[in-house]
């Protein structure tokens, strides 16, 4: 999914490391941008998203059969700009926008095929990012439906179902890339409060509860940040003018982002 120029996409691509190439997989059921993707128990879930007309709900992808299923229970309300993360055998769909307002957190139980509401975040957010580290769920950045948030990071404790405040990021941002790498949460790219794309990156240390800067990426981009084969990768995205095909790899030893030879073919966010 994602956006190609001004249109949403339903294309899916998978990377084959043995051949160092990208290949297309079965298309999603609906074209959608601002979609959230997560994995649980060997399945890929896409939640929310929009096509400039409507917001969507949930679907599930089975990589063994290369097929999508719409048998997943729908969210309580369709939404775009959701965070989706797996924790303790559940999926958490966090925040998002239903076309009217920014909204809060729900949890999916794949065994019961149901979504249930959880404790509300302290701040409503859409286009935020989320990560799970050391048994806690962190929600970072985003906007409140109108402006990019400079509010602190929130941390959810699933044991007692409560949210607490953590340190502010160094830079407010939405639509950033986020992942856990070597015991830290890394956040990179996105857009700032002036609606400008960012190339800056930073990381959160759960022991000191502080954010520290990371060497900037070569390209400004709203993109995906993933860990693959032990490497931290910034994949594709948009620099505000062009949809990017490039991939940048981060080296924690040199604190440096460098370009990779492999490019994915679609150039989508």
TrEMBL record:
InterPro entries registered for this protein in UniProt: Gal_Oxase/kelch_b-propeller, Kelch-typ_b-propeller, Kelch_1
Family annotation (Pfam families): Kelch_KLHDC2_KLHL20_DRC7
Record's keyword annotation contains Repeat: yes
SMART domains registered for this protein in UniProt: Kelch
Coiled coil: none
Any one biological process term the GO annotation gives: protein ubiquitination
Keyword Nuclease among record annotations: no
Swiss-Prot/TrEMBL keywords: Kelch repeat, Repeat
Protein name as annotated: Kelch-like protein 20
């Amino acid at each position: 999914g994602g956006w190609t120029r001004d249109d949403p996409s339903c294309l899916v691509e998978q990377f084959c490391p043995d051949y160092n190439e990208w290949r297309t997989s079965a298309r999603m059921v609906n074209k959608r941008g601002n979609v959230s993707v997560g994995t649980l128990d060997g399945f890929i879930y896409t939640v929310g998203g929009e096509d400039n007309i409507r917001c969507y709900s949930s679907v599930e992808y089975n990589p063994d059969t290369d097929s999508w299923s719409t048998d997943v229970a729908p969210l309580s309300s369709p939404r775009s700009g959701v965070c989706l993360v797996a924790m303790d055998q559940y999926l958490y769909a966090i925040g998002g926008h239903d076309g009217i307002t920014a909204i809060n957190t729900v949890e999916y139980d794949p065994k019961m095929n149901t979504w249930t509401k959880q404790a509300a975040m302290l701040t409503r957010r859409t286009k935020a990012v989320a990560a799970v580290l050391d048994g806690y769920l962190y929600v970072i950045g985003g906007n409140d439906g109108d402006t990019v948030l400079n509010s602190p990071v929130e941390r959810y404790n699933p044991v007692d179902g409560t949210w607490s405040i953590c340190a502010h990021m160094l830079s407010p941002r939405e639509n950033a890339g986020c992942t856990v790498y070597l015991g830290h949460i890394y956040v990179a790219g996105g857009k700032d409060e002036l609606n400008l794309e960012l190339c800056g990156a930073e990381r959160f240390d759960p022991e000191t509860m502080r954010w520290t800067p990371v060497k900037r990426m070569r390209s400004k981009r709203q993109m995906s940040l993933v860990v693959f084969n032990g490497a931290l990768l910034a994949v594709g995205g948009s620099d505000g003018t062009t949809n990017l095909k490039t991939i940048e790899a981060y080296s924690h030893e040199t604190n440096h982002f460098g370009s990779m030879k492999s490019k994915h073919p679609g150039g989508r966010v």
